[in-house]
Design brief:
By secondary structure, this protein is α/β, with parallel strands linked by helices. 43% of the residues lie in helices and 19% in strands. It has two domains: 14-186, Rossmann fold (3-Layer(aba) Sandwich), CATH 3.40.50; 191-316, N-(1-d-carboxylethyl)-l-norvaline Dehydrogenase, domain 2 (Orthogonal Bundle). The protein is globular. One of its GO terms (biological process) is pantothenate biosynthetic process.
Length: 322
C-alpha cells in the first residue's frame, strides 16, 4: 500500500475543501483554476454538486466547474496534500471527527475561519499535521445549492502556527496566485487575527442587531459611531495581548468599508436563515483573552449578549421577514 502524500516545499498538487459554502466554494474554484486537484466535501449540496457542478459568479470571471470531485462527509476521501477548512466555527465541535480520516503525517491543515484560538485547537488535536492560518479578505455569499456569488476582494494572508512550517507557505501561495488570488506572507498569525476581528466584531454583529448591510451602517452616523467604538475596543484588547495596531488603522478600515460593495456579512445571512451564529470564536474568546489581562470590553460584551439573545429567540420563534 502506498503511503499518503505529504506536502513538500516544492509542490502542492491536491487540496480537499471541507465545507463548500461561500468561502470554500470560492477558493476551491480558484485552486482548480490554479492547477490543483480539488476534492470538495459537502453536506446538503452533495447530490446537486455531483449532478450540476459548482458555479461561481465573480468579477474575476464567471466559472462553471463540471464535473467536480465531490464527497459526502461520510465517504472515504483520498488523501490530499492539504485540507482547507471552509466550515463556520459553529461546526468546530465536529472538526476532530470530520478531519480525522483526512489528516495524515505531514498533511497541511489550512484554516480559513475567523476568530481566535481555532488553530491552537487544531494543533492539539492533530500534532502530526502542519497547521497554517489563513486570514481572508473576501466578500462572497452562497446564493443557492452549488452557487456562489463573489462580490469583491478575495486576498489571503497566510502564516504558520509553528515557524518550522513557514517553508510550506510558498507552494500554497503559488497555487492561489495561479488562480488569480493575491496572497501575503504574514509575519504573525496572531497579529492578523486581531486585525481581522477589528472588522468582523463590529460589522458582523451590527448587521444582525441593526438589521442592516455594511453600506447602511456606514451611512448612518449613529451606527458608524457604534462601529468605531467597537473597533476601538478591539484595538485596546489587541494591544493588551501584545498585538497593537498601527496608527491610523481604524480610520483606514472604516474608509475601506465605506468603499466596499454593499455587503451582507455572513453573520447576517446566518441569522436570516436561522442558522447558528459564530458568537463563541468571534466574541466570547476575544473577550476572555482581554479579561485574562484585566481588560473589560463593555461594548463588545453587550453586543455579544445581544447576539446570544437574538440567536436563542430567533431560532425558537422564527419571525418571517426579519
Amino acid at each position: 500500500m502506498s503511503e499518503p502524500p505529504t506536502a513538500s516545499p516544492q509542490t502542492l498538487s491536491s487540496v480537499t475543501v471541507l465545507g463548500t459554502g461561500a468561502l470554500g466554494g470560492f477558493y476551491g474554484s480558484r485552486l482548480l483554476l490554479g492547477g490543483c486537484q480539488v476534492r470538495f466535501i459537502a453536506r446538503s449540496d452533495c447530490a446537486i454538486l455531483r449532478r450540476d457542478g459548482l458555479r461561481v459568479d465573480s468579477p474575476l470571471g464567471d466559472r462553471h466547474h463540471a464535473p467536480i470531485e465531490v464527497y459526502a462527509a461520510s465517504d472515504p476521501v483520498p488523501a490530499s496534500d492539504c485540507v482547507l477548512i471552509g466550515l463556520k466555527t459553529t461546526e468546530n465541535h465536529r472538526l476532530p471527527e470530520l478531519l480525522r480520516p483526512l489528516v495524515h503525517p505531514g498533511t497541511i491543515i489550512l484554516n480559513l475561519q475567523n476568530g481566535l484560538t481555532a488553530e491552537e485547537e487544531l494543533v492539539a488535536a492533530f500534532p502530526e499535521a502542519r497547521v497554517i492560518g489563513g486570514v481572508c479578505f473576501l466578500c462572497a455569499n452562497k446564493i443557492g445549492p452549488g452557487r456562489i456569488a463573489h462580490l469583491d476582494y478575495g486576498s489571503i494572508g497566510l502564516a504558520p502556527v509553528h515557524e518550522r512550517d513557514r517553508h510550506l507557505l510558498a507552494p500554497l501561495m503559488e497555487r492561489l496566485a495561479a488562480g488569480g488570488i493575491t496572497t501575503e506572507e504574514l509575519p504573525s498569525l496572531a497579529d492578523a487575527r486581531w486585525r481581522k476581528l477589528a472588522w468582523n466584531i463590529p460589522f458582523n454583529g451590527l448587521s444582525v442587531v441593526l438589521n442592516a448591510n455594511t453600506d447602511v451602517i456606514m451611512a448612518d452616523p449613529d451606527a458608524r459611531r457604534l462601529a468605531t467604538q467597537l473597533m476601538t475596543e478591539v484595538a485596546q484588547a489587541a494591544a493588551a495581548c501584545g498585538h497593537p495596531f498601527a496608527p491610523g488603522f481604524i480610520a483606514e478600515r472604516l474608509a475601506l468599508t465605506e468603499r466596499m460593495t454593499p455587503y451582507a456579512p455572513s453573520m447576517r445571512l446566518d441569522y436570516l436563515a436561522h442558522r447558528p451564529l459564530e458568537i463563541e470564536y468571534l466574541y466570547r474568546r476575544p473577550l476572555r483573552e482581554a479579561q485574562s489581562r484585566g481588560l473589560r470590553l463593555t461594548a463588545i460584551e453587550m453586543l455579544a449578549d445581544q447576539l446570544t439573545f437574538l440567536e436563542r429567540h430567533h431560532q425558537r420563534n422564527p419571525e418571517p421577514g426579519r
